[in-house]
Amino acid sequence: MMKLYSGTSCPYSHRCRIVLFEKGMDFEVIDVDLMNKSEDLAAINPYNKVPVLVERELVLFQANIINEYIDERFPHPQLMPPDPVLRAHTRLFLHQFEQELYAHVDVIEQGVAKAAEKSRAAIRDNLTQLSPILTKQKFLLSDEFSMLDVAIAPLLWRLDRYGIQLGREAAPMMKYAERLFSRQGFIDALTSSERAMRK
After folding, report:
1. Are 129 and 156 a contacting pair, CB within 8 Å?
2. Residue 176 and residue 156: Cα distance in Å, rounded?
3. What confidence score (pLDDT) does residue 174 get?
4. Phi-psi region of 111 (alpha: psi -120 to 50; beta: other; left: phi over 0)
5. Contact in structure between 197 and 157 (CB atoms under 8 Å)
6. What is the CATH number of domain 84-183?
7. What's the confidence (pLDDT) of residue 34?
8. How confident is the model at residue 95, as a pLDDT?
9. Nearest CA to 197 among 6, 7, 9?
10. Residue 112 carries which DSSP code?
11. pLDDT tens digits, one per residue of 60-97
12. Which of 52, 86, 184, 188 could tie 21 with a disulfide, CB 3.0–4.6 Å?
C-alpha cells in the first residue's frame, strides 16, 4: 500500500491528498508533526520535508512529482492531459504556480511583516489575472477537473489564513474556489487542522 508522509496543515501535502482521494485508492496517510519531525522522515527524504510518497522501494518527494506519478500509475480519472502539447502547457503552469504563488506562501509563513505584505499582494494580483479564464470554463484547463485545479485548491482554501482578500474583479475565482471545495475528493482530503482554517 502507498504511504504518504503528510503535514496536517501543509498545502503541498494537501495537494497529494487531493489526488489520492480523487483516484479513490487505498493508501495510508502518516501525519508528520512539522514542528517536531521524526527521524524517519529525514531517513527517507534528504530534504527532511513533506510530502513524501513511499511505495515498496520507491520514495518520491516534491508534490508535483508525486502527483504525476500517481496519475500515471492510476490513470482514472486522468488529471494530466493525454495530449503531449497540453501536458507540456500544464507542466509550465504548474511551474508558474510554484514561482508566482507558492514561493510567496513560504514568505508569508515566515512572518516578516513587510515581505509578507508584498507576497500577499503578489498572490492577490496573480489570482486576479487568472480570473478571466474562469468566466469561459469551469476549471483552469478546461471544463474538466485537472492537475492545475489540484495545485491551486489548497492555496484558495488558505486565503483567509494568509490574510489575502480578493477584490470584486476576482469574483469568478471565488466562484471557482467554491466548486473546488464542494468536490468529494477535496472534502475527504481535508485534515481537522485544515477544516479549522475556514469557519
Report:
1. no
2. 10
3. 97
4. left
5. yes
6. 1.20.1050.10
7. 82
8. 97
9. 9
10. -
11. 999 999 999 999 999 999 999 999 999 999 999 999 99
12. 188
Rounded Cα–Cα distance for residues 131 and 72 (Å): 29
Residues in the chain: 199
Assess contact for 3 and 28: CB atoms under 8 A. Answer: yes
Question: Residue 71 burial by CB count (10 A; 0-12/13-18/19+): exposed, middle or buried?
Answer: buried
Distance CA 157, CA 197 (A): 8
Farthest-apart Cα atoms in the chain, separation: 49
Which three cell numbers, joined as nine digits, stand for 80? Answer: 494530466
pTM score:
0.95
User: Can you tell me the distance from the alpha carbon of 161 to that of 7, in angstroms, rounded to the nearest whole number?
Assistant: 16
**DSSP letters spanning 41-92:** HHHH-TT--S-EEEETTEEEESHHHHHHHHHHHS-SS--S-SSHHHHHHHHH
- Alpha helical stretches, state H, the chain: 11-23, 39-44, 63-73, 84-97, 103-110, 113-130, 133-136, 147-157, 159-162, 171-181, 184-189, 192-195
Domain extents in the chain: 2-78+188-195, 84-183
Tell me, which fold does domain 2-78+188-195 have in CATH?
Answer: Glutaredoxin (3.40.30)
